[in-house]
């Protein structure tokens, strides 16, 4: 009986070592995958925050450009209005003379 138990234990040891090695390797690979995904998600959060900041800055720049365009148009309109008023005054002076 002890010989049979010893034979079974030797077979279990021979079969058990590779199985334990395979399971350990698999566990290590899964842990690496989980950690790499966690790092990627953290880096994507940082990229997302930077993208949001850039979009906000772009929105502000567009608003500034629009405001400056409106101011330029107002200045041009004021200049042309003052020129037409000056021309009207000059025409009246010529007519009276």
Record the SSE blueprint.
Blueprint: H1 2-96
Kindly, what is the distance between the CA atoms of the first and last residues, rounded to a whole number of angstroms?
141 Å
How many beta-strand elements? 0
What does the overall shape look like? rod-shaped
Fraction of residues in β-strands: under 5%
Runs in which pLDDT lies below 50 for 5 or more consecutive residues are none
The biggest beta sheet is recorded as: none
Number of helices: 1
- What is the string of SSEs from the N terminus onward? H
In angstroms, what is the radius of gyration? Answer: 42 Å
Q: How much helical structure, as a percent, in the residues?
A: over 70%
Mean residue pLDDT: 86
By secondary-structure content and strand pairing, the structural class works out as mainly alpha
In brief:
This protein has one helix spanning 2-96. By secondary structure, it is mainly alpha-helical. The protein is rod-shaped, with a radius of gyration of 42 Å.
Describe the structure.
The longest helix has 95 residues, at 2-96. The protein has 1 helix and no strands. The termini are far apart. It has one helix at 2-96. It is 98% helix and 0% strand. The protein is rod-shaped and about 140 Å long. The model has no long low-confidence stretch (mean pLDDT 86).
